Amino acid sequence: MAVSRRFMLGLLGCLPLGAVGLGRAEGAPPVVTQPDRTAVRYTMTAFTNDSESELYVYESTDATNFKLVKGSAYEPPDGLLRDPSLIRHTDGRYYITYTTGWDGQSIGFACSDDRVTWTHLYDHPVQIEGVTATWAPEWFVDANGEVNVLVSLSDGYRFTPHLMTATDPGLREWSPLTPLLGIGPKDTGYGYIDTTVVHYRGRYYAFTKDETTKYVELAVAEQLRGRYRFLGTDDWAGWGTPREGQCVIRLPDGGWRIYFDAYDDGMYLYSDSHDDFRTWTPPVELPGLSGTVRHFTVFPERGVTAPKNH
Fold first, then answer.
1. Which residue among 15, 43, 120, 186 has its CA within the 20 to 30 Å range from the CA of 301?
2. Segments in the chain below pLDDT 50
3. Element (H, E) at 7
4. Taking Cα atoms as reference points, which of 118, 75, 123, 66 lies closest to residue 95?
């Protein structure tokens, strides 16, 4: 059974949304985006309640009902496989990055041609003095094609999201890790983890878990590295607490969906927004996989036909 983050944290020893606005004037109607009717295949990469060292791959055509592509598709040569994040690179291959341990100074990388058979690439060392844990690496590919990874680094007490950028097309060389400005530790508390970023209308929106309150909060910046300012804190979206493992994707109708782990309740939930992140639908349990999968990412691909049988 997977160990909870709350337990391990014990061992490892702003402005309201309505006041700031999200890209449109107060009182103005929501921006209407033309729906994209292109067929989408959604691939989920996850670990499960039964194993935190095995990759499970699922897929869906509606971002809601997922079917298994391959169970135990990959197991690293050593260490854990938690929080697997997925992209498809310009070389046509799929890549995951993942958490290799509850403590330590590395994150793992693996690749696949078909999402079924995976090859371990390497464990990337985090060369920052005083780092005791490296959690939840998350891909972010910018509009110009720049490939980045966000990762939560702990000094033994507080977590801070950091960013590194690929410096070669093979995704083997990386820039030094630097903290995201504006999402650093407060004077008290445990900082922020599981930060994921989306680029929308020229801005960078960071969905990040306040590890003290256990709420998923929202911040915005003009540049990927920040400085971020918080738009929604505490229970701003009505998602409740504790929540973590968030993943945010664009929907074909122009809206957005967030998935997150309601780990105390043993459920995985999702919620949608259709007004530029201002309001969100009440959380709904993910059918079929809720209570099974843990911190996953969902990767949409347009124009890809899902196989009928696995």
1. 120
2. 1-4, 6-34, 306-310
3. helix 5-11
4. 118
